[in-house]
Amino acid sequence: MSKENQEREWEESWVPSQGGPGLETALRAIHESYADMQIGRVAPEWSDAQTRARVAEVDLSKAIGLDAATREAADLMQHGDLLSASARCFGYFNPTSAWPGVIADLLVAARNPQICVVSHAPASAAMEREVIRYLQSCLGFPEDAVGNFTSGGSEANGSAVLVALVRGNDGFATQGVRAYPKPPSFYASADSHLAWIKIARAAGLGADAVRLVPTSGDGRMDANALRAQVIEDREGGWSPFFIAATVGTTNAGMVDPLKECRAIADEFGLHLHADAAWAGALILDPKRRAQIAGIETADSVTIDAHKWLSVPMGAGMIFLRDRAAVHAAYSVATGYMPAGDGEDAYITTQQWSRRFLGLRLWMMLRASGPAAYQRTFDRQFRLADTLRAHLLERGWVIRNQTELPIVLFEDARHDVDSRTLADALEADAQTWLGCVAYEGRTYLRACMTSFLSQEADLKLLLDRLDAVRDYSFKNK
What we know:
Largest sheet: 7 strands, mixed
CATH superfamily of the largest domain: Type I PLP-dependent aspartate aminotransferase-like (Major domain)
Helix content: 40-55%
Distance between the termini: 64 Å
CATH architecture of the largest domain: 3-Layer(aba) Sandwich
CATH class of the largest domain: Alpha Beta
Strand order of the largest sheet: 1-7-6-5-4-2-3
Radius of gyration: 24 Å
Number of strands: 11
Low-confidence stretches: none
Strand content: 5-15%
Shape: globular
Order of helices and strands: HHHHHHEHHEHEHEHEEHEHHHEEHEEH
Number of domains: 2
Mean pLDDT: 94
């Protein structure tokens, strides 16, 4: 092949064209993925060793063309990955991505706007701001609050900690922790998501700054223990500055006592943060808003759109009341950035290069509206109630008490270990459950988060559970 033809070949493969390489193959692979989500196996077909061996066989120094490369990547993912987007995968909080959100990602990837400053992409920046403004109104935050998309809940929670450190001592923005006369400390439930440890390290506080407050025995932070710990730390040479209340815990879907946390925060002058990464989606459902009552009183809130709002991964959100503290924490002035309007994302977040994540939710809301989310929540709450009822009928025991659609349970008929059952279900490959530690024991956990899940999927789960329980008991 001549050099000219070689150049033409790679140029054509880099630009999509009607009937050109890759386009139809990619669309077909996406369509097949959605079919797999409804009827295909959940667990990987290949073992970890097989997957690693197949990937190792690929020679990245040799091109195979766009069509073949697309088929190769789709095949590796189809056979080597857990299909967490499946209607029958009940073990994760990162469910199926709805098609409008996927289209949004395709549009953004193609046009590739940089929205760190409004003048670089005025339309994209304006759309993302409008999504944030709408969600802040649903949350009950004031119009002058600051909201931004993040890579996920960990970045959002880290942003809240940084802003809270500035609020606690305005010298922190220039001096760091040296501005505090005593080492800063902050508080989260022992059953919270332990990204807090990483956040403390990244903020220069160290893991010792994190106080994991005991629960009340039901997976919720013990408010009395929280208050006692704050007092002990104030008297013992620490500077308490931040309380992280979880709204929908990862293990069991519990909501920390927000009213009591707010009162303690006010009593001691602390920043109250609500980590509502999953359950915060209910701000779009007026019927169920009472289940997360008190979230609107927080000084900052984390919500992950890629969890219960069914958009692709990597779409966290942070909402912060104190605009001045946000600017003190993040604002910089440079000679190579155009003058903005004081709200540009590069001066209100850690990120500089910023992907247009907000289009995912913009497309979801414009295509179907909040009513579609409300109908989805209706089904998922109904499925959780159905699962609870059938589990009890079949000799299982429910171990968490939450209104949210998360069901924690274990075998009561044969006393078969929950981890054994989870492993057997994964090997069976037709369904998938989580297995978590909660209040000193290990339980199976079913999350109703995929909009594709139906009663037929529950029936299959229940039947497979009974089958692996009986088999495991006979082979103990």
